[in-house]
Amino acid sequence: MAISAAPTRRPALPDARARLLDTAMQVIRAQGYSATTVDDICRAAGLTKGAFFHYFKSKEDLAVAVARHFSEMAERLFGTAPYREIADPLDRLLGYIDFRSAIIAGPIPEFTCLLGTMVQEAYDTHPAIRRACETYIGGHAAGVAKDIEAAKALYAPEAAWSAESLALYTQAVLQGAFVLAKAKHGPDVARDCVAHLRRYIEFLFHRPLSKEE
Amino acid sequence: MAISAAPTRRPALPDARARLLDTAMQVIRAQGYSATTVDDICRAAGLTKGAFFHYFKSKEDLAVAVARHFSEMAERLFGTAPYREIADPLDRLLGYIDFRSAIIAGPIPEFTCLLGTMVQEAYDTHPAIRRACETYIGGHAAGVAKDIEAAKALYAPEAAWSAESLALYTQAVLQGAFVLAKAKHGPDVARDCVAHLRRYIEFLFHRPLSKEE
DNA sequence: ACTTCCGTACAAACCAGTCGGTATGGTCGC
DNA sequence: GCGACCATACCGACTGGTTTGTACGGAAGT
């Protein structure tokens, strides 16, 4: 005879854990992992250390969790983007590139990659973080590789390069574009870089009316 | 008058400042800027805080100085590399790319870029560091752009892309390649990325035996 | 003797993580 | 329908170890 239905055994209250993760994502993208203190995150999330250490057993534990959180957010973003509906795999791939370019806008912490930021600092000192970043960057690249594979089968079946290698290359260009955007304090360079990447892919699939392998 | 023990070490060692800079370069490339402490650097250099703060007025001041130090080392390295002797500007450009690929080997902190590492963490919180990284990355890119400009004048005078933009793109690819190398814990991906970059440049210049702009 | 160079000792702030405590709500026996 | 009991969520003062930067002293070269 429960008056208020509680379908799952979870009590209620606005999810403090999710707030911490969202906040940490922003703050770490702006300041880096090491420079971000637990108090920074708590303050920005409007919570206290008690809440933080209730949900995460250490700062490193949070880092691994945000990596996953960021990746899930990204998968949702790309999974529901309009270019996903394009039937032709090459057009879909180019749609992905254009979409990546389109979302490079606004304040830097909002379009840069948390994984690339964290792995730069932590690859040697925090193996768990490194592994998480590798996993999620690799996972995203694998999704891109699927479209590349399909496009290659259709348009460049004999090409010397592998789909996986090209997919990783796209991620490298994006990561490097973010680094330059940070150095130059604006998104413009980054979009220029993606434009070069697009031209390269067009070349690879001999978009420019020449033939031959 | 103590007969034994000359406790304090004798001076006159070649420039402690240079040792601090060299050491800082290594340590920061391995751990990132925020995570490396002044003591880390002093310990690794076999010096103490007294020496450190004698030469640098703050940690940030050191960061700006290592950025410059790193840049000078890089300019020496590329300035005296064999590819510099190549007469044809396109071959020289490709020689640069091959050289970049060749030096991607060994432990990660030895081939990655200090500037890219630092600017990722510090772009928002340490303007002086950001500016230094921007300056030296831009300076190196400008050198590359010179060769690109010459190659373009010879082989692709009407091309739509600018030499400067392509030069920045090469740096983006390298920076991104380093990020992936860190994530994957080895240099192989990075070299793969540079191979894609080389192919792109070949495409841009002559490879597509069709004419057309 | 004066400056440059560098070591030791110390100060003050900072930071990850701990711990005792409170508030809320759910469960179960009766 | 009620009270005892307990789990979960969260708070915030506190601790112990770091960390940047300062003060000062002594050795060496000039």
Please characterize this protein's 3D structure.
Two copies of one chain form a homodimer. By secondary structure, chain A is an all-alpha fold. Chain A is built from ten helices and no strands. Chain A has helices spanning 16-31, 38-45, 49-55, 59-79, 89-102, 108-111, 114-122, 127-155, 163-184, 188-204. In chain A, helix 4 packs parallel to helix 8 (127-155), helix 7 packs across helix 8 (127-155) and helix 8 packs across helix 9 (163-184). The longest helix of chain A has 29 residues, at 127-155. Chain A is elongated, with a radius of gyration of 20 Å. The N and C termini of chain A lie far apart (71 Å). The relative contact order of chain A is 0.11. Chains A and B meet through helix 7, helix 8, helix 9 and helix 10 of A and helix 7, helix 8, helix 9 and helix 10 of B. The structure holds a DNA duplex (30 and 30 nucleotides).
Integer-rounded radius of gyration of chain A: 20 Å
Helix content of chain A: 55-70%
> Could you report the average pLDDT of chain A, rounded to the nearest whole number?
91
Distance between the termini of chain A: 71 Å
Oligomer: homodimer
Number of helices of chain A: 10
Principal-axes geometry of chain A comes out as elongated
As a percent range, the share of strand residues of chain A is under 5%
How would a textbook summarize the main sheet of chain A?
none
The low-pLDDT segments of chain A are: 1-13, 209-213
Order of helices and strands of chain A: HHHHHHHHHH
Strand segment tally of chain A: 0
- How would you classify the helix and strand content of chain A by structural class? mainly alpha
Biggest contact: A-B, 52 and 54 residues
